[in-house]
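Problem: given the chain below (270 residues), write out its structure.
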Amino acid sequence: MASNYQITKGDIVKTSLRSYFLQNGFNYGNYQGLGYANMLYPTLRKMYKDDDDALQAALKDNIEFFNSNIHFTPFITSLHLVMLQNKTPGAEIRNIKMALMGPLAGIGDSLSQFCLAPLFGTIGASLAADGLMLGPLFFWLGMNITLLIIKLLTGNLGYKLGTSVISTLSEKMAQISNVASMIGVAVISGLAVNFVKINCALQYVSTMPTGEQSVVSIQSMMDAIAPKLLPVLYTALMFYLIKKKKWTTYKLVILTIIVGVVLSVLGILA
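Solution.
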């Protein structure tokens, strides 16, 4: 069990800065799970002091699957540590962690990649076009300083939020989970129909009443009935294998390669 150690702002700053190493140890089993546990480690070490068994258990609990934006993850880790300090049940901490990682990933990725990068990139490119070597330096400094500030601010916000409204968060957990789930379903649906490309290559010849023959594509018929049906079905299969059969990402990749090659050779898929 954690001691009565009181988390300081210094702990929050250190944890937030360790988000730079969130991608260290990235793998397709638990994604950023190792990096997340690494962020928490210094403060957990202080909280559990000389209780190595409890520390190991806490670290083991936090190397599970995690995938979010590195600049907004300090918000989650700060909230996590404050809840742990307040003896919040582990199940509630995990629920909030899982509910927040998806939405914050979307916000963080959009902000860093589609807002800040184009902004500083445009200004830097303009300076470089005028012959100023300051252009690339402006882009590099602008991006890194801004993202550092975001890390520190989100970490501090998570700390303040955790110390003030932690009970409210626990009470609203069901609503937070439902909203996060709806956002996740919407995002996955959009990705499935746009990035999963599966087309049926089968065709047959149909004889018209006039005696003319026309080639009919099975894919065209399916698109007329239910557009993007094959990508949706294959995505559903992936979900089933992950959720029910506990398949790892490696197995899914191997299955996809085998299915794609075999069906393409047989002329079933285009």
